[in-house]
Amino acid sequence: MSDSIYDVIIVGTGPAGIQAAIHASRKKTKVLLLGRIENSALYPAHVENYACIEGVKDGRQLLETGMTQAKRFGAERLAEDLLKINQQENGLFAVETESGKTILCRALILAMGTAKTKLAVPGESEFAGQGVSYCVDCDANFFRGATVMVVGNHSAAIDGALTLLDYARQVYLAATELKVSEELLRRLHESKVEVLAGRRVKEIRGGDTGVQEVLLDNNEAIKTEGVFIELGSKGALQLAAQIGVQMDMELFKYIDVNRRQETNIPGVYAAGDITGPPYQMAKAVGEGCVAGMEAAVYARNKQKQQS
């Protein structure tokens, strides 16, 4: 991976992200693709309704083929999750990955899909918004001085637990198996987060005031006022909130874009499931194509202005 400024960084290695990388790279821009293909919803799926592809195709094979294409056109790849985004005074975007790398770019494409964050345990739906949250970056401030628990095995959970140390009195992390980089794991173990290793949440309990405790699979009850469910990598809501990207006003779940896949933040684009249904590969690829071309043009113009 190069240390120089990238023209375009694409977050997400599903069909939208890969197609964006192909088209942005073909415009001779410097492109970095962030993420793991196994996190894509297409990875375990089979496809038989995509135009010009005959028969049933394996999702994993399609993604690996697409990744090979993107690399052939010049895109670089970093198989890490993205934790933070911020925009600098000079207009460049700085992204921080799970291993602690900070990388700069002129344009950013969000194509990480939609997170399936439900634990599906008793009490989860009942206390949603009353102690159960799916976004540390959005709700941490409501739990100042409280005892909270984060649930998850991946980068979003570990980063969320570390973030909550600045707000909460005590932070638990319930994880069946930690699957993160060594750097993020080191930061966790050196912190004051209390890790409940190998533990699964069995039930979320509470009353009229909201969440009061969490029952684990070993029947241990942990007193807590908040439960943050952070499964997988950082999702659309968390990352978008960091730089003020506008979500849809009805569900506050998807990123609003126009026909050019532009968000309300100049230089930030979105494509694929993250922009809303239908959740189809055909839609994701089409939006990725547009986002890749538009982001490349934006980055070139930005470079000219800065030179």
TrEMBL record:
Under Enzyme Commission nomenclature, its number is 1.8.1.9
Every FAD/NAD(P)-binding domain range: 6-288
The enzyme's main class, written as a single word, is oxidoreductase
**Gene3D superfamilies referenced in this protein's UniProt entry, alphabetically:** FAD/NAD(P)-binding domain
Q: Which domain of life is it from?
A: Bacteria
The alphabetical list of record keywords is: Flavoprotein, Oxidoreductase
Which stretch is the leader sequence?
Answer: none
UniProt GO MF annotations: thioredoxin-disulfide reductase (NADPH) activity
**Keyword flag Oxidoreductase:** yes
Answer yes or no on keyword Coiled coil: no
* Name this polypeptide is given: Thioredoxin reductase (NADPH)
Q: What is the lineage of its organism?
A: Bacteria, Pseudomonadati, Thermodesulfobacteriota, Desulfobulbia, Desulfobulbales
